[in-house]
Predict the structure.
Amino acid sequence: MPETKVDRPFIRFANAAFLVVVAMTLAMALASRQFAPASAKALGFYALVAVYAAAGLWANCCVLGKQSRLVEWLYLAGQLALYALLVRLRMPSDAIWLLTMPLISQAATRLPWLVLAAYAGAFLAANCALPDNPNWAVADRWQSASSLLAGYAFVVGMTLVAESARQARTRAETLAGELETANSRLRAAADQAAELAAATERNRIARDIHDGLGHYLTVVAVQTEAARALLPADPERAAEAIAKAEQSARAALADVRRSVGALRDFAPKPPLRVALAGLVRESGLPATFACAGEERLVGEAAEQALFRAAQEGLTNARKHAGAARIAVTLDYRLADAVVLEVADDGVARTSAPANGYGLVGLRERLAAVGGALAAGPRPQGGFVLRAEVPV
């Protein structure tokens, strides 16, 4: 199990506890009248305590909670054997009992309850069998054992509380890391969504400019050509064509402004029927408009798509068909859809121009509102564009 940031203060605390226990054990041994600091037995005592401390520090840093249970249990068994050796050295009883406390604390989080009880019992048995005081009465031994047992219970309880806090902090650290990762992914997704929204808006504006501005510029070009042709023979009709061209140019400018400032444009729009009648009337083409069925409300995006479809149909009829008659029909008679048709009697075309974007953009616009576009030659001649949106 990898070490976390939360584990580090607990490891430092456990190591400090081991060092404090070692220092107190040495101090109590030196304070005992039965202890000779320079004797061979004392040197053995120092060596065993040093091994005990080194093993405990190593276990805190490298073993407990990070290796297999077998390694942990071997460590705890080795420390019990080390304590038994200290007992064999006939050290003063009040000098070594404290060494068992950190080991009981370590075992509390590593051993099952029954094994923990047996482990603590082994220390109690070893401590009560100390032969340093031949006159130590049985009652005194039981009193010492009960005192140690109370100490063990306290250490186990505090250890479990600390371990619970450590695990809670570890979970909090893990959740914080997962939350940061989720936030990073969310920020990345938000950036992608913003880029997608920007691309979608660019495509919408590009379609609006193509469908609207392209239509009006086509009308301006046609009226200008007509004015040039009529100017020598019929100045009045030429002036009328120029006025229509000017009117279309102003309409194109307004359409561009509406497309670019769509988010700030809250001006009321005319009904679709009225807008289409005006579009046909201002186109300068031999076109008629008819509305079939009872007018119904459709979404703003759907109305805009139908209006752009009419613009594209009229523009293509002007540019490609050479039609003598063009019929624009808005049909509300279907129960679940509104249909717009632009039909002409000109030269039939099998597809849009290779370098054009009108029908492609129109299909995208209609698909965005759940609609569909069909465009192709008519059996009786000419070309028909049919746009349908659901209601």
Observations:
- The first helix runs from residue 7 to 31.
